[in-house]
Amino acid sequence: MTVIHGDLSRETQFLQTVAKALGRDKALSVAPTRQEAGPPAFWREQQFENTQPLALFKTNLEALTGKVVIVRDGSEATNQIKLWLKVLNAKSAILWDHPTLRKYIEPAQLGVKAVFWNNERSREELIEIAEQSDVGITWVDYAIGYTGTVALFNGAATGRSVSLLPPTHIAVMRQADIVPTMSTVMRELLARCGQGNLPSAIDFITGPSRTSDIEMDLSIGVHGPVRIWAVVIED
Amino acid sequence: MSERPALQLRDRAVKALKDDQMRQAVRNAVDRLSGNKEKAARELPHWEQWREQTRLIRQHTIDNLDYYLKMLTDNVRKAGGQVHFALTAEAARGIITGLCQQYEAKLVVKSKSMVTEEIHLNPALEKAGMEVVESDLAEYILQLAGETPSHIIVPAIHKNRYQIADLFSQVAGEKVESDTPALTRFARQTLREKFMEADIGITGCNFAVAETGSVTLVTNEGNARLSTALPRVVISVMGMERLVPAFEDLETVLSMLPRSATGQKLTSYISVINGPRQAADIDGCEKFHLVIVDNGRSRILADEEYRQSLNCIRCGACFNVCPVYRQIGGHAYGSVYGGPIGSVITPLLENDFAFWGELPYASTLCAACTSTCPAKIPLQELLLKLRAHRVSAGYTNTFEKIAFGLWKRFFKLPGTYKFAMKAASLGQKPLVKNGYITARIPLLANWTNSRYLPAAADETFRDRWKKRKKQVSP
Ligand code: SF4
């Protein structure tokens, strides 16, 4: 209890100090009016043609050493992933237990040991498996054309480790979920989740893990995946 | 308060000027970074509108910081996290060390964070018996070398691959080759083990979001993701100004930060962390703590002009165009924050115009920093004001008095001052190529020899040396 009291009085003192520095007697409690928020107006209002987001996404992710393959349906998507796993000489994969991913992808057809991220296994076991897996496969809620980004909503059956620990990350998405800019994602994310009801972590991933810390020499895969490859389902 | 370097600014600069290898590395790095930044700025339509938008968002946040900090606090709690407030560095160290002890942490992994450098967190944790591992590649290198960052974005630019290979070889107990892939591979393996075993992850905070209680972390390596996904406890430490009001504001600051820093459209990883993991989640932390640090920021906030320096998004662009930084590198500043922005905030954060008040003289006032800053902070105007501030606090010498006298005369006629500054920056134009200043600066010799005259030290070098030696070997 003392800790909580201590924190509360520290909080009051802290906010009071800030208010005083701003020339107020006590902290502002009514919302201040805002002149501008978010990106510039011209950016929010720009129009894109239907096929533009996908084309942009492909160009931008490929510029970052990613691969983007467009397929017609789930069975083509499964085949594409199977092919890539072969190319990589992969033995194991860990997959999000995401209902939409399951709808499209047939794990038994992949030709490797496939484990789903769900509560059938313990945290320790799953993290260990993800760490040992050759490939992690996720379902993308939104992709952003302008930057070649995938946005992942992490939750119970959609663990962060799957897109993080294996050396290759394969991201699967529907073409319809590729939007032109981050503005759409931000808007829909808030609407979809309602305030205070966000997933515990959202990751925007743009290309592989990289660093230029050694003599400004670009190097791939220092902590996260070395490869990020995307399968886009037209459907 | 930070430990002061043993040498005065002039001597630190002179020392740096003799280090050819470091200077070459710094030149290469800043040329590359600012070249990339110019390209990225051209590629994004209406760059100036984005800059203005960034300034408006940051200014609004800072002007209403009390309101948004409260909002952030409430929302972090709603998401299940705990919030702590630290008025001083000492209080922050106490809170964080206390938390680590409470969770009986043995191994702490950290992802890059300037504010934890500022509050000198690592020595405090180590003193409390914990192993602390920096996970950003550059920070890891510096930790092994026992050195401090020399640049906000590329902290180890002053080290070459052979020095890095030597450091890694010592850890490995065998020779690690000096090619980049071998060095990276070694770091990946070594640090991955640490991530898997760590009890606590400590991160900084690039931007918190008041309306959602989120903490946004930006890295290219993915180390912030590892630091927050695997350990059971996560502590994020933020300077109290590091937030935006709304989720949609993220698009602006997250676009401007990487473009200005490295020329990337976005960094490889942006993680938006909303409190601890939810009931059914399997990975992510069980306990989430946010530590909000003042440590002198309210002093900056209290002055309406200095306040603008809190708009900084820590992109490092001002370092990369600064002719002085280019010549002397980051360590000569002697402070946690170097470059033009460091010269502005250090005297204020430290509340010390005698010693740290010298930093605003580490500038040619060419205004290249101001014209590149994505938040449009008028850096060289603030540097001038700080010089005047120092003079009026009684630390001065003839040379500075003259400079200040001139400045005051200009300042009395409002238009004149602006014009003079504009003329000064226009005067730089012929020297500017690809957006950075390429000419050698004949002024630098003057700057170190005559333009700059240090205040008399209040203790002799020998006294300080003795003290330092005592501190190093307890
Ligand atoms: S002062 Fe401006 S340019 Fe310098 S680091 Fe901050 S935001 Fe970037």
From TrEMBL, chain A:
<dbReference type="InterPro" id="IPR003741">
    <property type="entry name" value="LUD_dom"/>
</dbReference>
<dbReference type="InterPro" id="IPR037171">
    <property type="entry name" value="NagB/RpiA_transferase-like"/>
</dbReference>
<feature type="domain" description="LUD">
    <location>
        <begin position="55"/>
        <end position="233"/>
    </location>
</feature>
<protein>
    <submittedName>
        <fullName>Lactate utilization protein C</fullName>
    </submittedName>
</protein>
<dbReference type="InterPro" id="IPR024185">
    <property type="entry name" value="FTHF_cligase-like_sf"/>
</dbReference>
<dbReference type="Pfam" id="PF02589">
    <property type="entry name" value="LUD_dom"/>
</dbReference>
TrEMBL record, chain B:
<dbReference type="InterPro" id="IPR024569">
    <property type="entry name" value="LutB_C"/>
</dbReference>
<dbReference type="InterPro" id="IPR037171">
    <property type="entry name" value="NagB/RpiA_transferase-like"/>
</dbReference>
<keyword id="KW-0249">Electron transport</keyword>
<dbReference type="InterPro" id="IPR017896">
    <property type="entry name" value="4Fe4S_Fe-S-bd"/>
</dbReference>
<keyword id="KW-0479">Metal-binding</keyword>
<keyword id="KW-0411">Iron-sulfur</keyword>
<dbReference type="Pfam" id="PF11870">
    <property type="entry name" value="LutB_C"/>
</dbReference>
<dbReference type="InterPro" id="IPR009051">
    <property type="entry name" value="Helical_ferredxn"/>
</dbReference>
<dbReference type="InterPro" id="IPR004452">
    <property type="entry name" value="LutB/LldF"/>
</dbReference>
<dbReference type="InterPro" id="IPR024185">
    <property type="entry name" value="FTHF_cligase-like_sf"/>
</dbReference>
<keyword id="KW-0004">4Fe-4S</keyword>
<keyword id="KW-0408">Iron</keyword>
<dbReference type="GO" id="GO:0051539">
    <property type="term" value="F:4 iron, 4 sulfur cluster binding"/>
</dbReference>
<dbReference type="InterPro" id="IPR017900">
    <property type="entry name" value="4Fe4S_Fe_S_CS"/>
</dbReference>
<dbReference type="InterPro" id="IPR003741">
    <property type="entry name" value="LUD_dom"/>
</dbReference>
<dbReference type="Pfam" id="PF13183">
    <property type="entry name" value="Fer4_8"/>
</dbReference>
<keyword id="KW-0813">Transport</keyword>
<protein>
    <submittedName>
        <fullName>Lactate utilization protein B</fullName>
    </submittedName>
</protein>
<dbReference type="Pfam" id="PF02589">
    <property type="entry name" value="LUD_dom"/>
</dbReference>
<feature type="domain" description="4Fe-4S ferredoxin-type">
    <location>
        <begin position="302"/>
        <end position="333"/>
    </location>
</feature>
<dbReference type="GO" id="GO:0006089">
    <property type="term" value="P:lactate metabolic process"/>
</dbReference>
<dbReference type="GO" id="GO:0046872">
    <property type="term" value="F:metal ion binding"/>
</dbReference>
